[in-house]
Design brief:
Ribose ABC transporter permease, 15 helices, about 325 residues
């Protein structure tokens, strides 16, 4: 009896998910079908090696996108995540290569840097009326500068196999970053859909004044959402540094744009109050497959920026009409 109820609930959840994300799922499958039949990419796109490569690459973007989804639902934006990736990766790598600290301590320090910067963003945003755009733009430049100051502009190389396991290793047949990603996605989904804090995020994003009148601590919600975004950026920085075998001050350049693209393409409204982590996952897959396909077709990197920018603009345009229709 219980198993039948569980199966019914699962089927209902799947149907709702497919209904909510029908449009972007169709777009994703069309993109995959095009790359699968395109003579320039058909031999390599569907290979196991390439699929795992895509999953490994989108893992970093999805770490960021999980935090970015919450921030954008609040009606804000976090531009600092790319620079946090650089700083946390460089310092974490430096803890191993320069100071010979235990691996676990180095990883913890790197992730903690992201959390601290996120808390700094959250504290300023919730205690003042300064827009999140301005605050995170400032911390983006500060953290990028600190990454260059710490490294002197040169990569911090780490050659130990233990360090490389986090970003380039495997657990069974699956890449380690993908296993970590599964944990992050499940945790984020639980926070957003099963907790009071998650409901408060949607309430504040939908109508901040009404949320405040209903007894929600708006400042607390903003603070912890930005802290979570920083935490995800710190994790992404350590994993990326591990995958590249070094902490690099240029790592994370433009990462905030890919994260925002994944969130917006996934259906989260830039006006705030609406969005689902399930849509963000599909959005990240679209961005990841698009990047991979453009590389496989040897499209000039300059044109890749044009294509990704066009995709983001199209997604925002669709969101505009959807919001206008709802009103």
């Amino acid at each position: 009896m219980r198993s039948n109820k569980a199966l019914t609930k699962f089927n209902k959840t799947v149907k709702i998910y497919l209904k909510d994300n029908f449009g972007i799922l169709i777009a994703f499958f069309i993109l995959c079908a095009f790359l699968a039949i395109n003579p320039a990419t058909s031999n390599s796109f569907l290979s196991t090696k390439n699929i795992f490569n895509i999953l490994r690459q989108i893992s970093t973007n999805l770490y960021l996108a999980c935090g970015m989804t919450m921030v954008i639902i609040l009606g804000g934006i976090d531009l600092s995540v790319g620079s946090i990736i650089a700083l946390s990766g460089c310092i974490s790598a430096g803890c191993v290569a320069r100071y010979n600290l235990p691996l676990a301590v180095a990883i913890l320090i790197g992730i903690s840097i992201g959390l601290i910067v996120g808390m700094l963003n959250g504290a300023i945003i919730c205690k003042t009326t300064i827009p999140a755009f301005i605050v995170t733009l400032a911390t983006m430049n500060i953290m990028k500068g600190l990454a260059y100051v710490y490294t002197g502009g040169s990569p911090v190389r780490v050659v130990s196999k233990e360090w490389q396991f986090l970003g380039a290793g495997y657990i069974g047949p699956f890449p380690t970053p993908v296993i970590i990603l599964m944990i992050v996605l499940i945790t984020t989904a639980i926070i957003m859909n099963k907790t009071k804090f998650g409901r408060h995020i949607y309430a504040v994003g939908g109508n901040q004044q009404a949320a405040q009148f209903s007894g929600i601590n708006v400042a607390k919600v903003k603070f912890w959402v930005h802290a979570f975004s920083g935490l995800m950026a710190g994790l992404a920085g350590v994993v990326l540094a591990s995958r590249m075998y070094s902490g690099q001050p240029t790592a994370g350049d433009g990462a905030e744009m890919d994260a925002i693209a994944a969130v917006v393409v996934g259906g989260t409204s830039m006006a705030g109050g609406y969005g689902k982590i399930g849509g963000t996952i599909i959005g990240a897959l679209i961005i990841g497959v698009l990047n991979n396909g453009l590389n496989l077709m040897n499209i000039n990197s300059f044109w890749q920026y044009v294509v990704k920018g066009s995709v983001i603009l199209l997604a925002v345009y669709i969101d505009y009409f959807r919001t206008k229709k709802d009103k």
